[in-house]
Write a structure and sequence with these properties.
The chain has 5 domains: 184 residues, no CATH class; 240 residues, Jelly Rolls (Sandwich), CATH 2.60.120.590; 114 residues, Phosphatidylinositol 3-kinase Catalytic Subunit, Chain A, domain 1 (Ubiquitin-like (UB roll), Roll); 178 residues, 2-Layer Sandwich (HIT family, subunit A); 74 residues, no CATH class. The strands form 7 sheets. An 8-stranded mixed beta sheet has the order 7-8-9-21-18-23-16-13. Strands 3-2-4-1-5-6 form a 6-stranded mixed beta sheet, sandwiched between helices. A 6-stranded mixed beta sheet has the order 10-27-26-30-28-29. It has 29 helices and 36 strands. The protein starts with a helix and ends with a helix. Helix 10 packs parallel to helix 13, helix 20 packs parallel to helix 23 and helix 23 runs antiparallel to helix 25. With 932 residues, it is of the alpha+beta class. The radius of gyration is 33 Å and the shape is globular. It binds 2-oxoglutaric acid (AKG) and fe (ii) ion. The site of fe (ii) ion (FE2) has 3 residues, from loops.
C-alpha cells in the first residue's frame, strides 16, 4: 500500500484535520519485499463456542494465536478470555498462544509511532513458529478493530485475510483490501454526512444573521431564527469557558469546582476535553422540559433473552427506558445474536421543540447533531455500566452532548489505561465524577470515547426518576447491538424460539396519568415487548411492569385491554379519547386472551403495538406478593437557609439535589440485615466502597443497599446497625476522607456535609415531628484513621435495643461541642489545622449499693439498679441513713459524688446536680435520666 492509498483510505480530503494521530502514523509505507512472507489471519471475538473456534483455527493450520486485546479479559466471551484454560485448549490442537496486548493492544498503539509498531511486528514474525498465524482482536468486524491498522503495518510480503463468523459455525474470509475499503467507506460516509449537516447549519445561521441585519427577507420561520440565535449565543459561551486542568487540582478541589455552579472546559489527560455546564437550563426550563419529555416521549423497555449457565432462558425487561429521535435514520434493537431477532426501532421525528433544543446544545457542544437518544432511570437502582459510546454510526471520535433532568446522579469517568504522571500520587487509573444536576449538560468532547469509559452507578436511596438526553451525530444505518450493561456477565441465547414479536403499549388510565407517585414521578405510557411465554398471565405481566418499569409508590393497578380504533396507536390517542376497555383477569394468560380477541399480529408484519391500559383497582390487591405499593404522599419541600446559601460553596445545588431526590421513609433494616461485617473495622468505608460498584445485581434489595437511607452525588447517609436513638444515621463523603488526614482543602466538603445533614434533618423532622435532631462528629473518634463520619441522631436516645447505648456514646452525644462537634466547627478546625481532643472521661459503671461493675453498659446498670436490694452502706451517708442527715446541699453533693463513683464523672458536676434535682434526689432515677 502506498502513502496515497492509505491517506485516501483513512481520511477524507475535505476534513484532513479530523484524521487521528493514529491514522497519520499508520500512513508510513512499508518497504516491499522484506522477506517476511507469511499467511496472516485475523479474527475477533464473537458468540461462537470455543470448540468451533478451535476447529476453524485447526482447519486453517494456524500455528500461533497472537492476542492483541488490550484487556484480554473484557467482554462477554468469557470462554475466550486470556488464561491457562484458553492456552491449554489451543495447545491441544497445536496452536501456540502469545499475548501481545500490552505492546500491541488498542491503548498501547494509540498515539504510538508507526515505526515502533512495525519493529514490534517484525519481532513478532521473527519469533513466530513456521506456518500461518492469527491475530486475535476484540471486535468481530476487522474494519472496526485496531487489528486492521496493525495489519497495515505488517511487512508487505504478508498474505492478510480477515476471518468473520457467518453464523455460529461457518466462517467467511474478507480480503485485506476489502476490509480497508469498508473502513474507508465508513469514514468517508460519516464525514460527508457531517459536512452536509454543518453546511445546513451554516446556511441557517447566515440567513438568521442576514435577517437580523435587515438585508435579507425572512425565509426562516420565527422559531428557526430564534434557534439560530440561541445556538450562536451558546457557541459564544462555549468559546469563553474557563479551563480546569486535571493535573492542577486535588480531589477536594475538583469536588468544590464541580459544585461552584460555574461552567468549565475540563482538560483531562490524553488530550481529552469535556465541557461542563452545571446549569445549562435553569430550574424553570429544566422542569418544563422534563414535563414535555414525559408528555411527548414514550419510553421503550426492550426485553432481552439470556441463557443462564444451566441452560434456562431468562427473559429480562430492561429497566432503563429508551427512546430515539432522528429524522434521518431508524435504529435497530437487537434482542439476541440471531439476525432475525433484531427489530427496527422506529425513531420518533424531530418536532420544533426538540429541534430548538438540539440547536442550542449544538452551540454549547461546538458540534453538530442529528439525533437525540433518551435514557429513563425510574429510580436510583437503574444504572448504566462502564462503556464507551463507540457505535460505528457515531463515526471516529464522536462528540456527545448529555443533558440531565430529574434526580441528580453521578456521571463517572475512568481512564482506560493508567496515567503515568510525574507525581506518584496521581499515577494510575484516573477517576472523575460529575454530579449531573437537573438541567446540567456534559459534553464528552474529543478523545473522551477513545481513552475513557463512562457509567452512571446505582444510587440506593434515590427514589426520583431521571431522564437523560444524549445528542449525537449518527451517520450509519444499522442495528444497535444489545445493551452491554444489561448483558454484563450473561450469555445471550443462540436461538430464540420461533415466536411472534409484538409490542405492548401500556398506557395509564387518564385518572392515573396525572397522579404523581411517591417522590413526584409521574405514571407515563411505556412500550414493552410481549412476553414470549404463552402462559404469562396478566398478573405476571403486571408484576413485571411494577418490578422493572413503572415508578414505585403507585396504588393497586389492574391491566385492561383497550379495544377500538386506536388500539395500536400511540399514547396521545389514548389520552384524547378513552377507548373501550376490557378488564383482564389477573390469572388470565395474556397471549391466549389476545388470541381469543383476534388481536395477535400476523408474523412478519411490522411490529405492531397493542394498547393495554393500567387502571386503578379500587381497594384491590395485585395478584402475588410484592406488587402492591401504597401511594405515599410526596414530602413537603425542604428549605435552604439563606445564610447557608451565601456561605457554602455548592449549597444551592446540594439543596436542589436533596429536594429532587425523593428522600424515602426512615426504615432501618432490622437484626442481622443491618450488621456489616468489616474486616478492616472500617465498616463505613467498606459500605461506601461496596456502593461504588457501578452495577449491582441486587437492584437496591441487597444487604448493603438496605443500609442506605439516602445519597447525594457527594455524600451518603447510612443506617447504623446498633442505633443509639430513635433516629440515628451516619453521614459520610463518598470520597475517601479519614479523620487524622483531613486537610484545609476538605473544609468545603465538610461544610456541605453539614448542610446535607441539616437538610435530611428537616425531612426527618417532618416524619417525626416530636423529635429533635443533632448533627456532629464524635471528637473521640477523630484521631482514628477511619473514614470520616458524622452522626445525625435524634436527641431522645431511646435506642431500639437499650443495650446498645453505652455510657461512652451517651456522654459523647450529650457532652456538647467538646465531645460532639458540629460539622461547621470541624470545617473551621480543619481549615486552621487545629487538633481535636475529646474531653470525655470514661469510668466503669458500677452499682452504688453492691459495687458490681457493668463496663460501659448503661442499660445493664439500669436493669440492675431496678433489682439490686443490697443495703446502702451507712458510711456513704446517703439515702436517709443515720449519717445521711444534714443540709440538703451536702446531700446533693454526696449524691453527685456517688454518681461520679458510679461512673458518671464525665458529665460534670453541674449536669449531675441538675439531673438529681429532676430526679427528686433519687439516684436510681437520676441514672435512668442519664440514660434517656
Ligand atoms: O444517563 C447518562 O447520563 C449516560 C447515558 C449514556 O452513557 C449513554 O446513553 O450512552
Ligand atoms: Fe454512554
Amino acid at each position: 500500500m502506498t502513502e496515497q492509498t492509505w491517506q485516501s483510505c483513512h481520511a477524507s480530503d475535505a476534513a484532513p484535520e479530523k484524521r487521528t494521530r493514529w491514522c497519520r502514523k499508520l500512513c508510513v509505507p512499508l518497504s516491499p519485499g522484506d522477506g517476511n512472507s507469511r499467511q496472516v489471519y485475523t479474527l475477533g471475538t464473537w458468540r461462537v463456542s470455543r470448540e468451533v473456534y478451535l476447529w476453524q483455527l485447526s482447519s486453517l493450520d494456524v500455528k500461533l494465536l497472537v492476542d492483541v486485546r488490550g484487556n484480554p479479559r473484557a467482554g462477554r466471551e468469557e470462554q475466550l478470555f486470556r488464561g491457562k484454560d484458553f492456552t491449554k485448549a489451543l495447545l491441544s490442537i497445536g496452536v501456540r498462544y502469545e499475548y501481545w496486548g500490552d505492546r500491541l493492544g488498542e491503548e498501547a498503539v494509540e498515539g504510538a509511532e508507526a515505526e515502533d509498531i512495525q519493529r514490534l511486528l517484525k519481532g513478532l514474525l521473527a519469533s513466530a513458529p513456521f506456518g500461518p498465524i492469527c491475530i486475535f482482536g476484540h471486535l468481530h468486524e476487522p474494519q472496526k478493530c485496531h487489528r486492521l491498522q496493525l495489519c497495515n503495518l505488517l511487512p508487505s510480503g504478508c498474505q492478510i485475510q480477515h476471518l468473520m463468523w457467518e453464523d455460529h459455525r461457518a466462517i467467511r474470509v474478507v480480503g485485506h483490501d476489502e476490509a480497508n475499503s469498508l473502513y474507508k467507506r465508513w469514514v468517508d460516509f460519516f464525514y460527508q454526512r457531517r459536512l452536509l449537516e454543518e453546511g445546513k447549519r451554516q446556511r441557517e445561521r447566515s440567513q438568521a444573521e442576514g435577517i437580523a441585519s435587515g438585508w435579507r427577507r425572512a425565509k426562516l420561520r420565527e422559531t428557526e431564527r430564534e434557534d439560530a440565535v440561541a445556538a450562536r449565543l451558546a457557541e459564544l459561551q462555549a468559546g469563553s469557558l474557563p479551563t480546569l486542568r486535571w493535573e492542577e487540582l486535588s480531589a477536594a478541589e475538583w469536588g468544590d469546582r464541580l459544585r461552584d455552579g460555574k461552567a468549565y472546559r475540563l482538560r483531562l489527560p490524553w488530550n481529552t476535553e469535556i465541557l461542563w455546564y452545571p446549569h445549562f437550563l435553569d430550574d424553570g426550563e429544566a422542569d418544563q422540559l422534563e414535563r414535555k419529555v414525559q408528555d411527548r416521549i414514550t419510553m421503550y423497555h426492550p426485553t432481552y433473552f439470556f441463557q443462564t449457565p444451566s441452560g434456562v432462558v431468562q427473559e429480562t425487561v430492561n429497566r432503563k427506558g429508551q427512546a430515539r429521535i432522528c429524522d434521518d435514520f431508524n435504529f435497530g434493537i437487537q434482542y439476541d445474536s440471531s439476525k432475525d431477532a433484531a427489530a427496527t426501532y422506529v425513531s420518533q421525528k424531530m418536532e420544533p421543540w426538540t429541534r430548538s433544543l438540539l440547536r442550542r446544545i449544538e452551540g454549547a457542544s461546538e458540534a453538530v447533531f442529528n439525533a437525540i437518544w433518551f435514557n429513563h432511570y425510574r429510580d436510583g437502582t437503574v444504572t448504566i455500566h462502564w462503556h464507551t459510546d463507540g457505535n460505528e454510526g457515531l463515526g471516529p471520535d464522536p462528540i456527545i452532548g448529555s443533558l440531565s433532568l430529574g434526580a441528580t446522579r453521578p456521571f463517572c469517568f475512568k481512564s482506560k489505561r493508567a496515567w503515568k504522571g510525574r507525581d506518584e500520587e496521581i499515577a494510575g487509573i484516573i477517576h472523575l465524577t460529575l454530579p449531573l444536576f437537573h438541567g446540567s449538560l456534559v459534553v464528552m468532547g474529543k478523545n473522551s470515547q477513545r481513552h475513557w469509559l463512562h457509567a452512571v452507578p446505582a444510587m440506593e436511596g434515590i427514589h426520583r426518576e431521571r431522564t437523560n438526553l444524549t445528542f449525537r451525530f449518527w451517520a450509519l444505518e444499522g442495528f444497535e447491538t444489545i445493551d452491554a450493561a444489561e448483558a454484563q456477565g450473561k450469555e445471550t441465547m443462540e436461538h430464540l424460539p420461533d415466536k411472534q414479536k409484538f409490542r405492548l403499549h401500556v398506557v395509564p388510565d387518564a385518572s392515573l396519568v396525572e397522579q404523581t407517585c411517591r417522590n413526584g414521578a409521574r405514571l407515563c405510557p411505556v412500550i414493552v415487548d410481549s412476553p414470549s411465554d404463552v402462559a404469562t398471565t396478566t398478573g405476571d405481566m403486571l408484576r413485571r411492569l411494577c418490578d422493572h418499569v413503572l415508578p414505585s409508590g403507585i396504588e393497586h393497578l389492574h391491566l385492561a385491554l383497550c379495544l377500538g380504533a386506536d388500539k395500536a396507536e400511540g399514547a396521545s390517542a389514548a389520552h384524547a379519547e378513552r377507548p373501550q376497555r376490557e378488564l383482564l383477569d389477573d390469572a388470565q394468560p395474556l397471549r391466549k386472551e389476545l388470541e381469543r380477541l383476534g388481536l395477535l399480529p400476523q408474523p412478519r408484519h411490522e411490529v405492531p403495538k397493542i394498547l393495554l391500559a393500567l387502571i386503578r383497582k379500587p381497594g384491590g390487591q395485585l395478584h402475588g406478593a410484592g406488587t402492591t405499593l401504597p401511594a405515599v404522599p410526596p414530602r413537603k419541600a425542604v428549605e435552604l437557609n439563606p445564610e447557608d446559601a451565601k456561605s457554602i460553596v455548592g449549597a444551592e445545588d446540594l439543596f436542589r439535589e436533596v429536594r429532587l431526590s425523593g428522600v424515602g421513609r426512615y426504615s432501618p433494616p432490622r437484626g442481622a440485615q443491618a450488621e456489616v461485617e468489616s474486616e478492616s473495622g472500617d465498616w463505613i468505608w467498606e459500605v461506601i466502597q461496596n456502593l461504588s460498584g457501578i452495577q449491582r445485581k441486587s437492584k437496591g434489595k441487597g444487604r448493603i443497599s438496605q443500609m442506605v437511607f439516602h445519597q447525594s452525588s457527594e455524600f451518603v447517609a447510612l443506617y447504623v446497625a446498633r442505633s443509639k436513638s430513635t433516629v440515628h444515621l451516619v453521614l459520610s463523603t463518598k470520597r475517601r476522607l479519614q479523620f487524622p488526614s483531613l486537610l484545609p482543602a476538605d473544609a468545603g466538603a465538610l461544610r456541605r456535609l453539614g448542610l446535607y445533614g441539616r437538610l435530611l434533618g428537616q425531612v426527618l423532622k417532618e416524619e417525626c415531628p416530636n423529635l429533635e435532631f443533632q448533627l456532629g462528629v464524635r471528637v473521640a473518634r477523630c484521631p482514628s484513621s477511619k473514614q470520616m463520619a458524622a452522626h445525625l441522631v435524634s436527641r431522645d436516645f431511646l435506642a431500639p435495643d437499650p443495650m446498645d447505648l453505652t455510657q461512652q456514646h451517651y456522654l459523647e452525644f450529650t457532652g456538647g461541642p467538646q465531645t460532639f462537634l458540629p460539622l461547621d466547627d470541624l470545617a473551621k478546625c480543619v481549615k486552621q489545622g487545629s487538633k481535636l481532643q475529646s474531653k470525655v472521661q470514661l469510668h466503669d459503671l458500677r452499682c452504688h449499693r453492691c459495687h458490681q461493675f457493668f463496663g460501659d453498659s448503661m442499660r445493664q446498670l439500669i436493669l440492675h439498679l431496678r433489682r439490686c436490694t443490697a443495703p446502702l452502706e451507712p458510711k456513704r451517708g446517703y439515702g436517709g441513713g443515720p449519717d445521711g442527715g444534714g443540709e440538703a446541699e451536702d446531700k446533693t453533693l454526696l449524691a453527685v459524688k456517688m454518681l461520679e463513683e458510679m461512673g458518671f464523672a464525665g458529665c460534670g458536676r453541674e449536669a449531675l446536680c441538675e439531673i438529681l434535682l429532676k430526679a427528686e434526689g433519687s439516684l436510681e432515677r437520676a441514672v435512668e435520666f442519664l440514660a434517656t
